[in-house]
Amino acid sequence: MENSKALGTWLDDFKLSHPIVIAGPCSAETEEQVLKIAHELKDSDVSIFRAGIWKPRTRPGGFEGVGAIGLKWLQKAKAETGLLMGVEVANAAHVKLALEHDIDMLWIGARTTVNPFAVQEIADALQNTDKIVLVKNPVNPDLALWIGGVERLYNAGIKKLGVIHRGFSTYEKTKYRNIPEWQIAIELQNRFPDLPLICDPSHISGKRDMILEVSQQALDLNYDGLMVETHIDPDHAWSDAAQQVTPAALKQIFSDLKIRNVGVEEADFNQKLARLRIEIDDFDTKLVDILGKRMQVSNKIGALKKEKNVAVLQSKRWNEILGKMILEGEQKELSEEFILKIFKAIHQESIVHQERVINK
Ligand code: PEP
Ligand code: MN
Q: Are 252 and 260 in contact (CB under 8 A)?
């Protein structure tokens, strides 16, 4: 993608506002639902209406989308509102149907980006069309796979390209549905500065009350747009109910968002600062998470000691830990004084936890 400079120009071509806003339900459910949402989004910051027609579900038995009939509803919504229409495609048959129904934007979902065969099939089916194509990050935190997906489309002559950052799945429980790992998207942005980068706060957070916070972080990092799942009756949505917002709530989010409009130099400084702060915040969250897990192990040790009636404090073991950590700290340029302070605090907390278990 040497000539990635041309990639961002579709944003200008469509005279889309900055940031570009894509909104609409996780899934198209009924004609009435699609039309109602589209009409409510008509006079807002939204430029592209999204709706899932074919839904990739983690386990069988869930609602798997209404299928091709939904494309007719989108055509009607487009005719009535003038909004551009976007759907997720996962194979060549989906692409063919979307093209037949004059869909303007096609996105590749996270579960499809992981599969180069599927992405290539989609790229071949789209060969040289002038559709907007957005590639979501793969579910696993693999930047090369994400870039590979974009390259397959680029090589197929698709010029209106962009990427959607929707977070990454982990086995660990975190406050996110999919952890953002912002540094991965930032690296992509550094390597392809003209490739439009859109944040999907809905799938990152998994809950509607976190959409504003995640969207603001994305804008502070100079993302080009947001894709937010929007439904007239979120609680009764057929998929992703917890993360969808009403059109009215979406408007409120946009009025609360600080869309920073500053000089180039200041913007550069602010962005660098925002990136570093987000990195720090990520590490702090991970630190607390790890400390919590460490204490859970302490609780288990406490339970074992209780069984065998063994004393909590075992200084020999503790001195071994300290010695080892001082050496490891040295390699990371952490002073002995700092390591001692931190581990003393951790040790004390650990004792509190064990005593609590033993005296229960
Ligand atoms: C979606 O956008 O509704 C969707 C299925 O997203 P993802 O591919 O990010 O899981
Ligand atoms: Mn969804």
A: no
